[in-house]
Amino acid sequence: MKKLISVLLSSVFLITNVTGCQSKEVTENKIVAKAGDVSVNLRDFKYYFGINKASQDNYLDMFGYNDEQKLKYWQQKDESGLSPEDEIKEYALKLAENKESILKLAKDNKISLDSKEIKKGEKEVDNFIISLNSKEETGEKKLKKMYDITLQDLKNMQQDFLTIQKYVDSFKDQVKVTDDQIKKYYDEHKEDVDKKIDKQVTVKHILISTTLSDEDKKGLKENEIKAKQDKKNSEAEKKANELLNKIKNGEDIGKLAKEYSEDPGSKDNNGEYSFGRGKMVKEFEDWAFNAKPGDKGIVKTNYGYHVMECISNPTFKEKYDVYKKAITDIIKDDEAEKIVDEKVKNLKLNWQTEKDVYDSVKVKYETKEKPVVVDEAKNNKTENKDKNTTSNTNNKENNDSTENAQNKDNTNNKENETTKNEK
Predict the structure, then answer these.
(1) Is residue 320 domain-resident?
(2) 13 is a domain residue
(3) Are residues 80 and 133 in the same domain?
(4) Do 382 and 366 belong to one domain?
(5) How confident is the model over 284-312, as a mean pLDDT?
(6) How many structural domains does the chain have?
(7) What is the mean pLDDT of residues 181-210?
(8) What's the domain range around 283?
């Protein structure tokens, strides 16, 4: 549950490719699930369904899936009989139910936003929309098409999220953090904390490249290319060791970098780089963040052999005040969320799903590139029509043609469920 709270607090700006104009229109207030006087509306359910689906679609796009392949993916069922579509619907509903549970707790504890906080939240949404502005389509239309919610819906949701954050924050003062906790957390999460405080290390290096150019490989057979690569690797390693010995004997690595380095990004800067976590290839980064000033060595990467010297790498002790603040905030956030999680459990809400509304939200693709979430509740009455009426789908002026085409799509989708797993 704690993970759900974290997702809630970070989810309002997960919508991608939204562009902007203003409207006061809000989504029809259908109820997807109820627990006593608490309910999940269709707007929130579609939102969470939409952002989770969009995230997975981005992953499928990386592997070149077209719309037909995506539909097969979403509809394929595992051994338990669940499809990916079923799974994200379940997760989306859990998120929405958790959101409403926390809002109930906030309301019961008289937590609300003042006018300044409301205006600040609306401005954040406006700025977000403006930052993603494009010429192709207005933000409101794109938002409606992708998630079936309006810009005003998004502003209302932002107020909900800010209220949840305010309620969670109200428990932070109860959390006491010791120096031992801070040190333990740092030892267990060094990379994450270094990223959070944007810790910078500085190294100087000389790259001896092992990369063969297309010209190097031109006209050669595979075994000849391999032999040439092996020779270049051996020569590069030998050269790197020679340079390392020179540096250990007192020669300046910066001067040697200007003469020998094959890294155009640093050779004219004495071979120097300053960077944070996640900015360099793993082998290079790992050496730099584990080295002490004055350490020298050789690192092998896909680019070649790097002759390295650590210039600066601030320690935990040297930057303790910075680490202390960052880690204290993290621990207080985590512990406050645990407190809220326990309070949600103690509510013991018995959620009942409105199946017709829940089932109405499905995956569909309007075009070959833009995924949308659609509400098909209004079309349910057409499901039992004679399938032969699908011949009318080519008549765009026939009011029933769209419904019949949808029926035909649903039939094709059922057939596609028997196809091979496209994951």
Answers:
(1) no
(2) yes
(3) yes
(4) no
(5) 98
(6) 3
(7) 97
(8) 200-312
Strand partners, 182: none
Look up residue 312 and give its DSSP letter: E
Residue 168 identity: V
State the Cα–Cα distance between residues 220 and 197, nearest whole angstrom. 49
Q: pLDDT grade, residue 271 (50/70/90)?
A: very high
Residue 189 lies in a domain: no
Q: Give the pLDDT confidence of 214-240 residue by residue, as tens digits.
A: 999 999 999 999 999 999 999 999 999
pTM for the complete prediction? 0.70
Q: Are 91 and 13 within one domain?
A: yes
Tens digits of residue pLDDT in 341-366: 999 999 999 999 999 999 998 887 65
Residue 148 lies in a domain: yes
- 51: burial class by Cβ within 10 Å (0-12, 13-18, 19+)? buried
If asked whether residues 335 and 271 sit together in one domain, one would say no
Q: Which residue has the tokens 């765009």?
A: 396
Q: How far apart are CA 353 and CA 42, in angstroms?
A: 12
371 has a pLDDT exceeding 50: no
CATH number at 231 reads 3.10.50.40
* Confidence (pLDDT) at 3: 53
Q: In the listed set 355, 375, 395, which residue is the last one of a domain according to the structure?
A: 375
Q: Are 301 and 209 in contact (CB under 8 A)?
A: no
What's the token pair of residue 419?
């196809």
CA-wise closest residue to 2 among 342, 354, 372, 410:
342
Give the Å distances, CA to CA, from 329 to 72, 165, 341.
Answer: 44, 14, 18
Q: In terms of domains, do 16 and 128 share one?
A: yes
Hey, what are 354's tokens? 């409105």
| Distance from C-alpha of 373 to C-alpha of 368, rounded to nearest angstrom | 14
Q: Measure the CA–CA gap between 102 and 160, rounded to whole angstroms.
A: 10
Pairwise CA distance, residues 189 & 194, whole Å: 9
- Strand, helix or coil for residue 381: helix
Rg (CA), the chain: 29
In 3-state terms, what secondary structure has residue 140?
A: helix
Q: How far apart are CA 154 and CA 15, in angstroms?
A: 10
Q: Is 422 helix (H, G, I), strand (E, B) or coil?
A: coil
Q: Do residues 387 and 262 share a domain?
A: no
pLDDT in tens, 99-118: 999 999 999 999 999 999 99
The verdict on 132 and 25 lying in the same domain is yes
308 and 218, same domain (yes or no): yes
* Lookup: tokens for 5: 């709270």
